[in-house]
Specification:
Blueprint lengths: L15 E7 L3 E8 L4 E8 L3 H19 L2 E8 L14 E2 L10 E2 L1 H8 L3 E5 H12 L7 E7 L3 E7 L2 E2 L33 H5 L1 H8 L11 H21 L3 E5 L8 H13 L7 H4 E2 L7 H16 L1
Parallel strand pairs: 1-4, 4-7, 8-11, 11-12
Antiparallel strand pairs: 1-2, 2-3, 5-6, 8-9, 9-10
Helix pairs in contact: 3-9, 6-7
Bound molecules: zinc ion (ZN).
The site of zinc ion has 7 residues, from helix 4.
């Protein structure tokens, strides 16, 4: 558990924060102290937006009544989301494939109804921030968090902040060279077919082999194929910015031995060219299932600090 979220002289250590990890299947809300201590949590199924967001806000308000006033709220949400603070739809979930959720007012509503400043970013950026501050990517000038699950998303944390251009990164949609034994499959991305997400996400694995990667036999060729694609992402990111750590999270990375395969393949594809070896750079998350709420905490702390 992080114990030094902020300088010990900083009053944020003692303050309480409302943290929301908003996922496509469940919302987790929590009251978290500035030190990272998780005081109370609740879970809600992700149903209709109105009911789900309303239940989460009501819980936060009740929890604040039990534990003390909140200094700020932080939301790490499934996306895509609008991050431009000057935009009229800042804090909205925008054009999502999640039924009923497109164009949903989320963070601004939470801020209005709780009455406190609200930080907002993608779930991937939140987890990336938490891993960079308190987890597997601590102390790195540049680190990248990738989740490989229902979708594939990534966030680069540069000098302590998620790298944002016109909007957040969409690293899951890079194009790849196909594995020689994987030419028959068209890919599942509705926009690109055989981009990384189209080839290596959980649904892509299920679509061509009928089971999750961890449920396939240990000698199934699917593992080498997925490792080949993930290794291409790794060396692409190394070529662009030589991150100190690339943290690979999400359900697919729970496959035994997959990290090792990705490291070896990335080292082979990289040809020993990059400063960091794949074994040093490519790691699993350090915060486990706390990364979501602690991502919310990082966003809440930053929002409070920037005013
Ligand atoms: Zn795509």
């Amino acid at each position: 558990m992080p114990t030094a979220v902020t300088d010990s002289a900083n009053s944020a250590d003692r303050q309480l924060f409302g943290c929301i990890e908003a996922g496509g299947t469940k919302f987790v809300a929590g009251i978290v102290r500035g030190t990272g201590e998780i005081i109370e949590t609740a879970r809600f199924d992700t149903g209709e937006p109105e009911a789900t967001i309303s239940a989460t806000i009501t819980w936060l308000q009740g929890a604040a009544a039990r534990h003390g006033a909140l200094a700020a709220v932080g939301i790490a949400s499934f996306g895509p989301v609008e991050l431009d603070y000057s935009a009229a739809n800042w804090g909205f979930i925008t054009r999502t494939t999640k039924q009923g959720w497109s164009n949903t007012d989320f963070a601004a509503r939470v801020s209005r109804q709780t009455g406190v400043p609200t930080g907002f970013d993608t779930d991937v950026a939140g987890a990336g921030l938490a891993e960079a501050r308190w987890g597997a990517a601590r102390g790195q000038k540049i680190s990248i968090y990738i989740t490989i699950g229902t979708g594939i998303g990534g966030a680069a944390i540069v000098a302590g902040q998620p790298l944002t251009g016109l909007n957040h990164s969409e690293m899951g949609h890079i194009r790849l060279a196909r594995h020689p034994d994987d030419h028959a499959f068209d890919g599942v991305c509705p926009f690109h077919g055989d981009c990384l997400e189209g080839l290596a996400s959980g649904p892509a694995i299920l679509a061509r082999w009928g089971a999750s990667l961890s449920d396939l036999p240990a000698d199934h060729p699917g593992r080498a194929i997925i490792a080949y694609y993930l290794a291409q992402l790794v060396v692409t990111l190394q070529a662009i910015m030589e991150p100190g750590r690339i943290v690979l999270g999400g359900g697919v990375m729970g496959t035994p031995g997959l990290l090792d395969l990705v490291q070896r393949e990335a080292e082979r594809l990289g040809g020993g060219y990059f400063r960091g070896t794949a074994e040093q750079v490519v790691v699993l998350p350090g915060l486990g299932d706390r990364a979501g709420l602690l991502g919310g905490l990082a966003l809440a702390l930053d929002r409070l600090a920037t005013g």
